[in-house]
Amino acid sequence: MKRRTIAALLALSLCLSAPIAAHAESGFADVPDYAWYAAELAELVEAGGISGYADGTFVPDGEVTVEEYIKILVGCTFEQEAIDEFEGETWSEKYILTAQSVGLLNGFDVGAEHLQCALTRSEAAWLLVDFARYGGEEPTVPEGIEKALRDYTSLPENCREAVGKACGAGLMTGYEDRMFRGDGSLTRCEAAVTVVRLLDTERRVELTIPDYDYSSPVPESAAVDDSFFADAMFIGNSLCAGFGLYSGLTQGTFAGVTSMTVYSIWQSSYAANLQTQSYGKIYIMLGINEIGNGAAAVAESYGAVVEKLRQMQPDADIYVQALLPVCEEKLTAAQKSYHITNYYVSELNAALQEMCAEQEVYFVNLHEAFADASGALPSSLTWDGVHLNAAPYRDWLAYLKTHTV
Hints:
Number of strands: 5
Low-confidence stretches: 9-24
Number of helices: 15
Radius of gyration: 27 Å
Oligomer: single chain
Strand order of the largest sheet: 2-1-3-4-5
Shape: elongated
Order of helices and strands: HHHHHHHHHEHEHEHEHHEH
Largest sheet: 5 strands, parallel
Distance between the termini: 43 Å
């Protein structure tokens, strides 16, 4: 089956209003020429396939209903003469009947109430894959899709595969934060772009599967601003508590508890947040209080914590922060007897880095931000050999801002 070209879409429109004169160089007053979708939108406008509103706007972030999108897809696929062979009680019914006559929309909800609902991004993926198959394509879910789309595994099962295939075929993409947000409404500008991609394979976007080396620490990156941490939860011991108090970061959720360990983390009242709230990032700082149990044992229990966090927060990026160095000259004999020394700190950090590689989570080598040439914490940065003074917590934040994935 040969798909219709963009030039053949002269009678199609994402809205029912008449075409308008362009008020901006891009074609619409509310669509700047630099908009990410401007080229595809201009292409469809030039072909007469999409129009805006009488006031000269396109409303790119407006919603598209299910029946509007089906109309566009059917119009892309069938000649108008074939569509006009069908009649219906509503304006969209002949488009639906045309699709169903060749086996399209099989299993898709075309009830009257649903047709008038805003189309979700997951539903758009389902429809795109359905029409791509009819056009002779065989989209597949690429290996490693869950790395490209952080929320892939939590998408509803009835559309998860379609999302993977639509993104794998370059028909749709996730957002910059690697979230697909399948429950979100497909916007008018997104609809225009997906239509062009369905028609023209050269306009599709290649899916990038992150090839991240979890065995290595998170490399230095361009600095992010505080808003990056808006969906982050910081959970850990008293060092984490100090970070929340003195780093200057006003974004995120802080769950630092004095003496918290990998064994007591679930006893904290903050743990309830993980059951009721969703986070995009989880930063963990644990290990110094339990270091005396041995690196292998602590790393094994730490790994169990990570596994449970992943189950509770499947859409979150997990960052395990390395233990900070200590200033041994300020430590008590009792602390040293519990292996709170730089030798054992380094041993546990190595075990945690290996654990992160096995669990495929991010290891943030915060240790290097505070260690001097000998690998110790300078005495000027700490008041007791373990905990930082107030000012160095800002250096901690600066390091996190320049070590993100």
